[in-house]
DNA sequence: CCCTTGACGTAAC
DNA sequence: CGTTACGCCAAGG
């Protein structure tokens, strides 16, 4: 794994403004790693302890089971509330937003 | 070198 | 909503 890649991902995550959220896929894209969302998860799990990783959720607004509790708690501290285990689209920054009509 | 495991994503049933 | 299948990729057995 390139340190370069790791740093870019870390930078993107660190740049997410408080009160807003993003997704693994989006972070990957912004970091120049299209389609490598999984990589982002890997990186956050290893070198993301000191980052606002709680602002990063899955594309559908849910979070992985083992971090769900802490995730919800940290977000709540920023004024974001999880509804039925998922995050309302109103709080998603640049996430999905497909099918509107 | 092959196989398994994930903080993932999208499409199809 | 839930499961399958596939695509993607790094790390550890």
From TrEMBL:
Q: Which UniProt keywords apply?
A: DNA damage
Return the Gene3D superfamilies for the record: Winged helix-like DNA-binding domain superfamily/Winged helix DNA-binding domain
Instruction: Name residues in a coiled coil.
Output: none
Q: Which CDD domains does the protein's record reference?
A: ATase
| PANTHER family (UniProt xref) | 6-O-METHYLGUANINE DNA METHYLTRANSFERASE (PTHR42942), ALKYLTRANSFERASE-LIKE PROTEIN 1 (PTHR42942:SF1)
- What GO molecular-function term can you cite, just one? catalytic activity
GO BP: any one term = DNA repair
Query: Which residue range or ranges hold the Methylated-DNA-[protein]-cysteine S-methyltransferase DNA binding domain?
Result: 7-80
| Pfam families reported for this sequence | DNA_binding_1 (PF01035)
**Designated name of the protein:** O(6)-alkylguanine repair protein YbaZ
Q: At the top level of its lineage, which domain of life is listed?
A: Bacteria
